[in-house]
Specification:
This protein is α/β, with parallel strands linked by helices. The protein is built from 13 helices and 13 strands. A 7-stranded mixed sheet has the order 3-2-4-5-7-6-11, with helices on both faces. Helix 4 packs parallel to helix 5 and helix 10 packs across helix 11. The longest helix is centred in the first third of the chain and has 15 residues. The protein is globular. The N terminus is likely disordered. Its cofactor is thiamine diphosphate. Its EC number is 1.2.4.1. The pyruvate dehydrogenase complex catalyzes the overall conversion of pyruvate to acetyl-CoA and CO2. This is Pyruvate dehydrogenase E1 component subunit beta.
Amino acid sequence: MLGIARQKMLEQSLKKIRPAVSMLRNYSSAAKEMTVRTALNSALDEEMSADSKVFLMGEEITKGLLDKYGPERVLDTPITEAGFTGIAVGAAYYGLKPVVEFMTFNFSMQAIDHIINSAAKSNYMSAGQISVPIVFRGPNGAAAGVGAQHSQCYAAWYATCPGLKVLTPYNSEDARGLLKAAIRDPDPVVFLENELLYGESFPISEEVLDSSFCLPIGKAKAAEILEKDGIDAEVINLRSIRPLDRSTINDSVRKTSRLVTVEEAFPQHGVGAELCACVVEESFAYLDAPVERIAGADVPMPYAANLERMAVPQVEDIVRAAKRACYRSVP
């Protein structure tokens, strides 16, 4: 019932708050499209079909997989995150490949001891004798109208921990390719999905639809967008927060001489701060302007829709930052 109520609230509020980047997309109608939700489901289906060691455990298990693979490989659990996460980590110790699904990553706080102290550190503490091939996945960050306790971004939280890999897919290609890579990886992976993007459709190629398609972990994707207001911007979709593709970031700064970081999490000690440090350490002499950081407001997420929108980055915030970085007038 909790999942149904949450879905209804999301549907009612979705139009009020969208990730800023969604307003910038302009894709050809001729391309095949797939929703992020379908991309994730197809990746799970194909990996379960290819490897009998892969199984799912958690809340709101993806549609259709229980009927296909049965209750021994698809376990729809109660809201007991500490319990089922501990069970899944133990299964990974014995060579199985669990995919743990949280209704929201805010609920992972109940299981954080298993994620950090058991999953992330066991390979190091066993001198490489224990591998923990496990994926922790679910919606992360701001949703819509769910208040402060269900709206946090955990990218920086988990990215600080050695032993974890942290992935942040954006579009359908990312979701499909990175989830397959996460399941195949021998180490624990935190897979942070954006709840507001589940129903969004993105162009997808035949290559991406191939069952062998997989994206490398630790590599960012750079994309150029058309000139607008006389500014050429190179957009980097990080995809992976840990490991971080430092070379792509620094190559871009050395080409553009500017950096604007965008994240929806709190600004202090965030991913944007790490990107700034990365550039200052390796490409400071190439900067022609101060680094601009765009982040969520440094307050717990408000419940009211108008305040909620003010608490997360919007397109206009990014445009103003880009203009400041280029010494253009800002209204």
